[in-house]
From TrEMBL:
It holds the Pfam family GYF_2. It comes from the Bacteria. It comes from Marinobacterium marinum. Residues 4-48 form the GYF domain. This is DUF4339 domain-containing protein. Keywords: Membrane, Transmembrane, Transmembrane helix. The chain crosses the membrane at residues 75-98, 118-137, 149-167. The keyword Transmembrane helix applies. Signal peptide: none annotated.
Length: 239
């Protein structure tokens, strides 16, 4: 019967029967690069002997990562809603609240990163959770997913900007209307009241051309300036 010896950490072990060698392979003590002696000749790598057929047949100690289609995208789709929800909250409170949206984005990316690791995947670089579109893109590539949730998030971000801009202008219009009424009554000695202001054009940052509609049905062309202190200044040029 052929007996075997092998080398581990500079020491010889053996003799072993073929069954004992198979057990050592299963335990990871003998690998393809381990030097073995099959009972004659010189020491050779195990992969160069009949033992080569036994490598890879022992059961893995850990399962492979879950396939991309087996990993749900729950956190990604929740992430898509964050920019829009943030913009709506900004609209309600009347100011830009960047920090809550940023924190929500990062928190959802961290939760998703944890989920990927639990599924056996190496998640995108940890720093990418702080740059949300980078994380989403890398995640989709890692899982071989289509980029639907990436483009959905970009679209949501664009829509949130439109909501914020529209909300900001709406707040300016609402603030300008009573100022127009005061100017008309105090400077033009008229009893007319402003019923609404519509911004027509932003000439430069914070400076607008607008139209004020009066309760008489008349329209006035006005200018509105939003200054750094948050105050607005309304002027009624010669009509």
């Amino acid at each position: 019967m052929t007996t075997w010896h092998y080398v581990e950490n500079g020491a010889q072990f053996g003799p072993l029967t073929l069954d004992e060698v198979k057990s050592a392979i299963s335990d990871g003590k003998i690998t393809p690069s381990t030097k073995v002696w099959p009972g004659e000749g010189d020491w050779v790598h195990a992969s160069e002997t009949l033992l080569s057929e036994f490598f890879g047949v022992h059961k893995a100690t850990t399962p492979p990562p879950l396939a991309g289609e087996d990993i749900d995208n729950k956190f990604m789709w929740i992430l898509v809603t964050v920019p829009i929800i943030g913009a709506i909250i900004d609209l309600i409170v009347g100011m830009f609240l960047f920090l809550p949206s940023i924190m929500a984005n990062i928190a959802l990316c961290l939760l998703d990163e944890k989920k990927l690791k639990a599924a056996g995947h190496v998640s995108p670089a940890h720093w990418s959770v702080f740059i949300v579109p980078v994380y989403i893109w890398k995640r989709a590539a890692l899982l071989n997913h289509k980029k639907h949730y990436f483009f959905a998030w970009i679209s949501a971000l664009f829509l949130s900007v439109l909501i914020d801009v529209g909300g900001s202008e709406m707040a300016i219009e609402e603030s300008a209307c009573p100022v127009v009424t005061d100017i008309i009554q105090e400077q033009f000695y008229s009893s007319a009241r402003c019923m609404g202001v519509t911004i027509d054009k932003e000439v430069t940052t914070g400076f607008y051309k607008a139209t004020a509609t009066l309760d008489t049905g008349d329209e006035l062309f006005i200018t509105i300036e939003e200054r750094d202190d948050g105050m607005i200044y309304v002027q009624i040029p010669n009509q």
